[in-house]
Amino acid sequence: MSTRPTHGMVLAAGLGLRMRPITLTIPKPLVAVAGRTMLDRALDHLGAAEVGHLVVNTHWLPHCIEAHLAGRPNISLSPETELLETGGGVARALPLLGEAPFYVVNSDIIWTDGAVSALTRLAQAWDDARMDALLLLVPTARAVGYDGPGDFFIDANGVPWRRRGQEVAPTLFSGVQILHPRLFGGCPSGKFSLNVLYDRALEDGRLFGLLHDGRWYHVGTPEALPAVEAALIEQEPE
Prior knowledge:
By secondary structure, the protein is α/β, with parallel strands linked by helices. The chain has one domain: Spore Coat Polysaccharide Biosynthesis Protein SpsA, Chain A, CATH 3.90.550.10. Helices cover 24% and strands 24% of the residues. The chain has six helices and 14 strands. It has helices at 38-48, 62-68, 85-93, 118-125, 194-203, 225-235; strands spanning 7-11, 32-33, 36-37, 53-58, 75-79, 102-106, 110-111, 133-139, 143-144, 152-154, 160-162, 171-179, 207-211, 216-217. The strands form four sheets. Strands 5-4-1-6-12-8-13 form a seven-stranded mixed β-sheet, sandwiched between helices. A three-stranded mixed β-sheet has the order 7-14-9. A two-stranded antiparallel ribbon has the order 2-3.
């Protein structure tokens, strides 16, 4: 039985090194793409999914994010004096995220939904008895601005496995997911990547994937911005 998460976290602490010089003075999540910041886009998705309790972690230029969020209700900040990476950042924020499954969304990616929102589809697919993590996976054919080798293969039951060596996988991780707090049992202290926990869940048969049916946009460098903006404007005309 699926349950819609009531808590969510937006990962906004990264340095955005590949987006420099823009990110020398502004955090990457606050970079505007087609008129809206990437952070606002993530928060709007979570708001539309009726997520009532939100956590945003900060590290690089945290005062900018704090000021930007001042007008938004129900947001707790999780400041990191030392950058904790994805896993460490979520682990630090666990006391703010409750005891039930919660969304985690990267703030430096953009996605658009199909007929049903991706967050709703994740909630509908969640099976608490079987899952510790459910990742939204993007078919590389739906990824705008991405030309990498992909991340995962996935079978008809939603069971993923990682590509190896020089393999080219048909899907990539979108940066959108549902995680259960139990995934973090015995996790490393300090900074670590969520990949550590994905691999453990994979070995235990408790990592699953769901294929995204909308678009996904990779904004990796300043040079990529115009192409992504053009694609977004074409898909989302004013």
